[in-house]
Specification:
Blueprint: E1 4-11, E2 18-20, E3 27-29, H1 33-48, E4 57-61, H2 65-69, H3 83-86, E5 91-94, H4 100-114, E6 119-126, H5 133-141, H6 156-170, H7 175-193, H8 206-209, H9 215-219, E7 231-233, E8 236-237, E9 247-255, H10 256-262, E10 267-276, H11 291-304, E11 314-316, H12 321-331, H13 339-344, H14 361-364, H15 372-384, E12 400-407, E13 412-420
Parallel strand pairs: 4-5, 4-6, 11-12
Antiparallel strand pairs: 1-9, 1-10, 2-3, 6-9, 7-8, 10-13, 12-13
Helix pairs in contact: 4-15, 7-12
């Protein structure tokens, strides 16, 4: 069991922080990568009750800032959170596609456990909307296996469509059954996000205006035209895909004994697990379940001395609706092949024994890829200390939470068990 705890966290508003001129195609930045990083870092330190001088190391998780905005070497940008105190501190940048800032958290934990660091700041950040759709799609494709996937025009919707097709074939589902499963997942995430003031697709967003609060509303959308739900990569449609989002999140970590001496809002990282799948999908068997995620989860449970029955709620990586179903099965909440049916049956809401994606998930909260892992941990922390951002479990303030964050096409899998002290 880890002796490291979170004592402060912050999540920026998620959204598309640009202005686009439809006539010229010009894109103007309205909240920059640098602004988001600094806001999150300063917010987490303030939330911890510490001073910048108490921090002795900084980790920054970011997926592809060099391609998104021509900025490499982003670890040192952490110094700008508090230049007078942070100048000359060690900084480290981590990259693991959509799990970049979970890796930052894990490496910060290793740093504290080694004895070289006492109290550290972890930031996850991404700015995706400065690019047009074609260029943004190329950047994300660079996190695939380039020789066999990205260079061949395969996109991330296409990669997860392979999981959807594998799932459909293995469990003998009709296209209509699969589509209905996906629609129930999307509707749940939209409903949850409407309560989240930080969500990209929160109250007043297009899904809210379209009334997409139930599966039938999504299933009844037209295939073409305004307000439609077209195929992006069959069988995945527009409303099966997460959002292209700008945002940042940050956490302050220290040893649990120290945390308890300075704060009454302490959440211990009771167990972590990291497992890596082969990068190229054509090298993998079992394209109907997340084998590496199951391994990461088992390792985290073993370290924490817990099982899924001990977990009060979970934030899982729903980059696409199929992956929320696969994550739910990887957790063991649903039997393999039964996850979609369980969503159709109305499970995993805020009234359930173990709600999933109370934040709205990546599907509706947003998915600024390098910030996603830190955001998931920050939002679980807020739930556990009784300060939820958005919906909370109906059964009361939870004691334990779980994060399952994956990078790439379910390649870098990070599972974290968190417990309120």
């Amino acid at each position: 069991m880890s002796n490291i705890s979170i004592i402060g966290a912050y999540n920026t508003k998620f959204g598309s922080f640009v202005e686009k001129n439809r006539d010229t195609g010009e894109i103007t930045d309205t909240k920059s990568y640098y602004d988001l990083l600094i806001e999150a870092g300063q917010g987490a330190i303030k939330d911890s009750g510490l001073e910048p001088k108490d921090i002795d190391g900084i980790w920054v998780g970011s997926c592809s800032p060099s391609l998104f905005l021509n900025q490499e070497h982003v670890g040192p940008l952490g110094v700008e959170v508090a230049p007078d105190d942070f100048r000359l501190l060690p900084t480290t940048r981590t990259e693991g596609a959509c799990a970049s800032s979970s890796l930052a958290i894990y490496n910060a934990i290793y740093g504290i456990e080694s004895g070289r660091f006492n109290t550290v700041l972890v930031i996850g950040v991404e700015k995706m909307n400065l690019l047009n759709t074609k260029d943004m799609t190329h950047v994300l494709a660079c996190s695939s296996h380039w020789p066999t996937e990205g260079s061949q025009g395969v996109t991330f919707p296409g990669l997860f469509a392979e999981y959807a097709k594998g799932y459909q074939e293995h469990y003998n589902l009709t296209p209509e059954e699969l589509r209905k499963m996906f629609a129930h997942v999307s509707a749940l995430c939209y409903r949850n996000a409407f309560h989240n003031p930080l969500a990209h697709f929160g109250k007043g967003s297009p899904p809210d205006k379209l009334g997409l609060t139930n599966a039938d509303a999504i299933l009844n959308l037209p295939d073409k035209g305004k307000g439609s739900n077209p195929f992006i990569a069959p069988p995945l449609r527009l409303h099966d895909c997460s959002l292209v989002t700008d945002g940042a999140a940050a956490l302050v970590l220290t040893k649990t004994d120290k945390a308890k001496s300075i704060s009454n809002k302490v959440v211990e990282i009771s167990g972590i697990g990291q497992s890596t799948e082969r990068l190229a999908e054509n090298a993998r068997p079992n394209m109907y379940k997340l084998m590496a995620a199951k391994k990461a989860l088992q390792d985290s449970f073993n370290e924490a001395g817990m099982t899924m029955k001990d977990i009060d709620f979970a934030e899982v990586h729903d980059c696409f609706t199929i992956n929320q179903i696969l994550c739910t099965e990887a957790l063991g909440l649903s039997e393999d092949g039964k996850g979609g049916w369980d969503y159709i049956d109305g499970k995993y809401t805020d009234e359930d024994e173990c709600p999933i994606n109370l934040s709205g998930g990546l599907k509706a909260k947003g998915h600024p890829v390098g910030a996603t892992g830190a955001s998931m941990h920050a939002l679980v922390y807020k739930q556990l200390v009784g300060d939820p951002i958005g919906l909370a479990p109906k059964k009361g303030t939870p004691e334990t939470g779980l994060v399952l964050n994956v990078g790439g096409s379910a390649v870098t899998n990070c599972a974290t068990i968190l417990k309120r002290i």
